[in-house]
Amino acid sequence: MTEHSTALLKEIAENAATPAAADAPEFIPADAPFTDEQRVWLDGLFTGLYALAKSSGGAAADTGPQTALKILYGSQSGTSEALSKQLKKHAATQGFDASIADLDSTSPAELAAMNHVLIVAATFGEGEPTDNAQNFYAALMADDAPTLPETLNFSVLGMGDSSYPHFNTAGRDIDARLAELGAT
Question: What is the value of pTM for the model shown?
């Protein structure tokens, strides 16, 4: 993690415990496909972001240029794509200029020019990436994949059915490889 990332996470955590967070909605529904621990963690993250945005009076969305955010998804059944579209709408309320695309529409080399990337990656079959993420996945895992700048901030949300033995393999692989290549 970069010094900037650490400072931002600290600010989010501090804001999650402020009065501004008291009226935060439930961000992660009880029937979402997460463990109780994951749901609590994600709710805490989103509550902190909510309070941070609220304490700034929503100014982030109203003043100056918005922060670019690329949301990339790998989806077999459409769930990850639908979630990506919802995330794009929510990001717009938080001061981000978000765009979405399937993973195969972007190459690892193109990631180097981005600053903020959210990847929603479903796992298919026996731990493989989805059909619309296979080319990206293969290029990312290749020995000649490009080094990525530390200024590339990323997050990977792995989706899938936890009853399968290779649950979330594609998401974990992508997350580990992006970090290995230098992104934070």
Answer: 0.66
